[in-house]
Amino acid sequence: MSIAHSPFTNEIPTVSPPPSLPLIARGERSETMAGDVDRATTGPNTDCASWKSGPYSEQAFDGIVGRSKALQHVLREVEVVAPTDSGVLIQGETGTGKELIARAIHNLSGRRDRPLIKLNCAAIPSGLLESELFGHERGAFTGALMRKAGRLEAADKGTLFLDEVGDIPLELQPKLLCVLQEHEFERLGSTRTQQVDVRVVAATHRNLKQMVEKGQFRSDLYYRLHVFPLSVPSLRERREDIPLLVRHFVAEFARRLKRRIETISPQVMEAFTNHSWPGNVRELQNFMERAVILSPGNVLCAPIAELKEDPVRTQRSELITLEEVDREHVLRALQATNWVLGGPHGAAARLGMKRTTLYYRIRKLNIPMRPR
Fold it and tell me: Which of 37, 203, 244, 315 is most open to solvent, judged by the fewest CB atoms within 10 Å of its CB?
């Protein structure tokens, strides 16, 4: 692991003392994973030797910020499975960084010099997903004016990352299963079978086992994907990482927006730490960008009044499903933006997702397109 100079202090800031917390301290150093993880304790990041040395250690965990036990456990599992060619199923809530984990698996594998091809199965209409994944021949369907290679061919000898794999239609799942078992496929409109050498890493925020029980996902495909499951913790499960993430994002956006933020007050940091962050790291990242924009001076001016509307629920009398939580979160974003989906101030930007992905979520969660 590289040791780099950093503008951050050596310890996680406390949230109770009254003095302001300096963001930049002269002469301080921080231990980083790929230059992005700030020092939270005086000890080393972990006892995994490969994080400290090796030609690919610099980029392996690029973008992953945190030192909590929950996150370190996941990263140790990444190191175990990455050198193999086994399939990995990454599970976790929206915004927890599943794509970064997939990238780390690829960077630590023997396929690191080959492409990592990504496909968000939820962002593509089901009618076009087969063509996008497997490719098509000329004339295979209306508008297919020429032959096109799919993502599978592009990922040959490399890694294919299937994000939101739970959204793949049932009728398309047997074809994906054939790829995983036989390493072969056919383009849409073709009768010629092609061989492919690809490692598939899948991710989802949905409960695939529950979908199997309801007949919404094939059991054979589930077991094939579930060779090595990885569960990425939510931000609520690693609150000790929030100060590190705050400092990381503030420094990043201050540099990008040409601002100089030197101080975060303990009251502001306490508000960040106590918030539930239902959108996880992605929501925190977007909030930090807005906070830096609103900070003309060297003190972070964050709109923490918005966070007080959703305090941490330490006790709940009734549990609700993740789908209900997701629906409530999307509804709040739509109401806050007056049901505007696109644009820099729309609900999609607020939730940290593409407009097409948000539109798909709205339909999937049975949310009316206009307020009643």
Answer: 315
